[in-house]
Amino acid sequence: MILLKKYRIGMFCLLALHPFVQLHSQEELARVSNATPQFAINTNLLSDLTYSLNLGAEWALDNNFTLKMPLTYNPWDLDNIAKYKFLLFQPELRWWSCEPFSGHFFGLHAHYASFNAGGILSGNLKKYRYQGWLAGAGLSYGYQFYLSPRWNLELNVGVGYAYVDYDKYEKCDACWTQREKDGVYHYLGLTQVGISLIYILK
Fold first, then answer.
1. CA–CA distance, 156 with 160 (Å, rounded to integer)
2. Is-contact 108 139, C-beta < 8 A?
């Protein structure tokens, strides 16, 4: 009889606590499903328009910082003369005002590129071909818009400095002449412009 009473009391306690246990579980599931994203991949749509292959990966380091590692590659000869080839690596440390992959961010980026371009656009790039490398750093600002649980859209712009080391070749009728000169150029200006599509992996 005593065991039966204890059993009834135990069952009553379990039934009384059941709604709270269920509520707690639902809250846990909601917390996990709405957790801050930790990893994403991205592509810059503006670079895609110029047929430049590009892909980036971005990791959350903590509640406000992420590290982005993008790579852009353009291997194409436009025709027998015109060239627009480059390989660009531009890692960036970002600080988010709210949380990673949401809203405003400010970034500190570095860049390194090798390039071979000429016979395009107008001015010096139309008349000459430049081949060499560059390195530098800059600051950026951007904003990321929520589209769906897996997709975001990002707008960003950056300014900075680049040390440019190049060889200069002059254009003739159907070829490039021998190297005209080598030189160094100190660039200050835009270092990033992006409209990027973001896919959240986890």
1. 14
2. yes
Share of the chain above pLDDT 90, in %: 61
Residue 66: closest CA among 38, 99, 94: 94
Alpha-carbon distance of 86 to 129, in angstroms, equals 13
Token pair listed for 79: 């025709």
pLDDT digit string (tens) for 96-153?
999 999 999 999 999 999 999 888 877 778 888 899 999 999 999 999 999 999 999 9
Q: Give yes or no for a contact between 84 and 74, defined as CB atoms under 8 angstroms apart.
A: yes
> Of 88, 141, 86, 132, which is closest to residue 110 (Cα–Cα)?
88
DSSP the chain: -HHHHHHHHHHHHHHHHHHHHHHHHHHHHHHHHTPPP-EEEEEEHHHHHTT-EEEEEEEE-SSSEEEEEEEEEE--B-SSS-EEEEEEE--EEEEESSBTTBEEEEEEEEEEEEEEEES-SSTHHHHEEEEEEEEEEEEEEEEEEE-SSSEEEEEEEEEEEEEEEEEEEEE-SSSEEEEEEEEEEEEEEEEEEEEEEEEE--
Contacts of 35 (CB under 8 A, 6+ apart): none
Residue 69 Cα distances to 59, 60, 72, angstroms: 9, 12, 10
CB atoms within 10 A of CB 46: 13
CA–CA separation, 124 vs 108, rounded Å? Answer: 31
